[in-house]
Amino acid sequence: MVRLRYSTYPRPWTRRWRESDAVAKNPPHAGSPAGALHFEAGPGFRAGLALGLARFNRGDHWGSHEAWEAVWLDAPPEEKAFVQGLIQAGAAFHKYVVQDNANGAGRLLKRALQALDPLPDYHHGLDLVALRAELSVWRKRLATPMPITGPVPGLPRIGWAPAAAREHLQVEEVYLHRVAHGDARAILIEARSGGHVGWGECRQSWREHGALAALSESLVPALLALPVSSAAVLSLRWQGLASESEAAAGLEAAIWDLSAKRDGIALTTALAMADRPIPLAARARGGDVASLVLMANSLVDRGFRELIFSARPNADRRVGPNVVRALAAQGAAFAFDLEERYRPSDLYALQVLAGLGPSVMMRPVPGAHVHEAARLQRWLDAPVAFAPVETAEAASSVLEREATDELLVDSGTCGTYAALSMANAAQGHAVAARLIARPVTPIGAHHALAVACHPAFTRPADVGIDGDERPWSDWPQPDATGCAAPRSGPGIGIEPDGWLRVVREGEPTRLAI
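and the corresponding structure tokens:
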């Protein structure tokens, strides 16, 4: 175990309304009728606001425009002008910096100021006094030709109000625990702040050792250096620090859990989603037809309504029909995960598998062959799902090229906020989304289950269940309807202290600044 000790958000958004007796706490801005209902920003609203602010301050003005637009879509009527002013500010500087259109940028800044001027000095934690002053200066600059000589003006920044900055999450300690189960291993991440503990899981490969170094040398020090306004902005803070996406995803998960526990809310609420039962899928594995059928029947008896069979080239055409016939009487759906082991030239073998009637054929081509996946959709009489992608931008590219019938999302690789963004993108393209995760411990499984509560995930979630009996009783299991619900309680609703003591390795090592 390595001990690091340093002393030092997504749609749909949650809304909460208060009666007029809350005016003293949240006074109405100009134009709000007395006694009206007032909006108290939920976790999703705050996360989207923070993400847009972080992008704006990095100079990604179009990215801030996109983040705030997602907030605006679900903001109540009396808050739309505020968010619209931020959107127009981001669009103005994109138009000026990227498109070199000073006149258009000036017009947008005028509209932004008209929307922001009636608001209080500090609104939803943002310092609007400084922002309005900077936007006014820039509006005057854009109205006259820029001088060739003299100092170059800096782009504006948006700051947090003093009270909001004090409420940001300051992570105090991080512990890293190495755990293993069979051939799978992971790093459990324990983040502490103010007496609260958040947990996340970073999957590891036995042949790769970069995740531990990335966490202890780059990502965790960057996390502890500054307070966190929202876990949604962590990927921006860590950009360029480490290429191990699993390490960043696991640490982000721990901070989401820690933030939710500090606020005393469930992880699904922190992610601005409602708890709902999630249909579960399980993976059936076996060395021959008899053992595979036995395992499949056992999983169906345990309540699973969809089974995923991993690819075994040269055996699938013999094994598949026998397994399908054995399952037909029980009414269980099935899918094939081809794990990129087939080539596009193996069309006949793929057509045989598609003819068995799977709900989806996952990863039928190597990950880089997006165009081949699009062609297979026309050739195969079954839905085709491209390999999971690691960024929201890559997901949008796959969706726009219509290369997948289902979007596979692995939150353990891309991270929590990116997974929700991908689900939003799939929903916008009317494409089904499926959560694919291969966690090693219940920490990762319950975190994935909470992410799967996003309404765009309409296919059974794979949270790492197969025919092997897990040593932990708190692993998600289906009920009589084949579904599981997130655990109740703050955060992910699970504390691993009991079984973590069994799997800890070695004495703790303390690193300090």
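(Above: one complete record from the training split.) Residues 77-97 form the longest helix (21 residues).
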